[in-house]
Every structure is written in structure tokens, then in C-alpha cells.
């Protein structure tokens, strides 16, 4: 069972370090809301629904608690919540072994859903929940929540990895009036920043998942969604011309040593959390930071910069015909065949449930029925809109879909090969050969 790099990095970057227990109280159902939510009238009064997920602390954990509170108020259920820790799969596996799995669990990797479905640890969605999912989610999210054609999960929380965060003052000082939209513009912007005396990029390359995110964005834009899917399943080789083209494009930027804070060696010694204050801290070392939407939370918690005022983002630029939208998500599944589990999943598939967290901030929903006005500020609305606008062209983080030996192991596989490529981006063909050899061994 894998602990994916992006998930671990995300949890470390967000400062939620204390696992806390949360409990949603018992109350009479209040009714109202969307027609696609759970039945009202206290249908679960006297019943307890157990939930397990990774979210903790006063940020994510407290916000998720309000979602569970709303469910409890509508149904009369008592909801108990237990944080899993970073290794969700191992935690849930131990609960299955102890014959005490939660009613509902949230999985941060699609591969874990497939693994659990194969083992018979999760239950297919009820018919009414399937109908709600079909109404509110694009096909790509329905497929990500399925295995062998059977729907198991509801993607409640999404994340976009196709954002580039920048310090607004650095752009102003360099005379840059508009963020870049294409790769050519991105290179030009980097050059303009460099000429103005600012180092363009901060890269936390000590965490290999940071570099897989770079590759996935460039590859999706260069090759398109269909080839992205085929490469994610290793149906085409990493020696394919599209892979080499993506590596060449990365080399155009990574090969400019003065474009990287600390040069290549400095980047390779910088873990992701340290790359954020390198752009937005009191003594900035760079102007831009490609990273996921959760960077916003790290900016506000680790620096004095304010989102929208000091810091902003632009979509990852289009390298090919279309800009990429790559991301991840947390999927809710039923580990018990109880009414409480199925009612909660139906609620989580509704726009009402998404709205509860969206209004608090720090959240992106893949639910297309959620009104974007629910988000508390323009920056979060723009991020959420990019995920929804991508529709069925949204693609899940490729390294999360690969075997851990290739896509999720520190010092090995794709992580190590891309780190070596950042150190010396001159050998595109050799790097493609190394990627293919490692992928072929992992996908056996």
C-alpha cells in the first residue's frame, strides 16, 4: 500500500499536525436544501455513523466537522469522526483486520479505491447515490470513483495542481502587466524577471513529487488527454516521442540555472515547504512557484503575504494546444453496507454538502452543480472554475495512478529520474530510457 508523495507533501505543507477527534452532535432533522441530499425527517435518529479521513486540526478538520454537523442535523444521526493519519490505506487495513472498519472512509488516492474494491473492503454506491453522482459530476469523476464498471466512490474534495503562484510585486517591478498564458510566454516572463534582477522560480525538488507534477502538466498539454491516459497505464512507452517532447520543454526552463533559486543544486536540496517562503517570505529569493491550489493555505500560514493582495496565481501555461488541468481528490467510500453509510454518501454527492465547506474556504469541489458564488473570494472561485471548466479533460495525478515503485517512492523510480534530469537536463533520450526501464519493472 502506498503513501503517495503528493499526499504526504500536501499534508506536511498544510500545518495540521495534531490528530484530533471530532464528533457531530445529535439533532432533529431540519430538512431543506437540494433535492439530491439525504432524506429528511430524522431518518437516522438513534443511529451512529462512523467516518475516517485524513483531515485534522483547526483548518481542514474543523471545516469538515461542519459538513458532518449538517448531515447530523438533517438526518438525526450521531456522526463520529476519527483521523487516519497520513497512511490512510494502512490505517484502514488495520481496521478491516480488526473487524472494525468505519461506515465511510475518505481515500486520497484512486489506486487505493481500486485496491480496496478488489479486496471486497468497500461497497458499491446505492442506486439513488449513483443517480446523484451522474447528475452532479462529470464522467471523469464517475470513472475515477469506479472499478470494473461498478461505482464505489463520491469525489467530495478535489485539488488542482495546474496553478503557478507568483509574487505580485516582483511582476510589477519587472514591468510584467499580464501573467503568461502559453509556454512561450512563460519562458519570456521568466527571462523578463531575470533581467530585472529577480530569480524566476522556486522549486522544492528535494520532494520528487514536485517534479512529477511539473512533468504531468507539461505532458498533458503536449500529448493530450488520451495519450496521458495511455501513458498512465503504461500502454505506451516512456520512450514515446510525446514523452521526449515534454522532457525537452522542461529542459528549456530547467536548463537555465540562473532561473532557479539556488540553481539546480539548491532546488534539489529544498523541500517543498521551504519553497513557499522562498517566494512569499520576508526575504524572497524567487518570484514564481508552480504548485497546487493548497499553496494558498501555506502562503497564509507560513508567511505574512495575503492572497490576492501580495500573492496570486495563473493557470499552468499551455505547452501544446490546450492548457492542462491536473489534480487529485479525496473520494468517499462505504466500508459497511449500512443505511447511515449510504445516506452520508448521497449527501456528500449533493451541492449542499459541498457548499458547507466551500463557504469556509480552503476547498475545491468537483461538483458541477455547486454555485461558484459559494466560494469566499475570487482566487478560490477561479481555481474551482478551472476544475469545473476542464470537464472530462481533467486528469488525475499520473504518479498516483502508477505503482508506488515507479511513481511514489523517495529516491527511486520517476522521482529520482526526474531529480537527475533537473540536475542535468541535457540527456532527453537517456532520461526517457531510464523512465521506461523503471516503469516496465513496476508495471509487471
From TrEMBL:
<dbReference type="InterPro" id="IPR006059">
    <property type="entry name" value="SBP"/>
</dbReference>
<protein>
    <submittedName>
        <fullName>Carbohydrate ABC transporter substrate-binding protein (CUT1 family)</fullName>
    </submittedName>
</protein>
<keyword id="KW-0732">Signal</keyword>
<comment type="similarity">
    <text>Belongs to the bacterial solute-binding protein 1 family.</text>
</comment>
<dbReference type="Pfam" id="PF13416">
    <property type="entry name" value="SBP_bac_8"/>
</dbReference>
<keyword id="KW-0813">Transport</keyword>
<dbReference type="InterPro" id="IPR050490">
    <property type="entry name" value="Bact_solute-bd_prot1"/>
</dbReference>
<feature type="signal peptide">
    <location>
        <begin position="1"/>
        <end position="29"/>
    </location>
</feature>
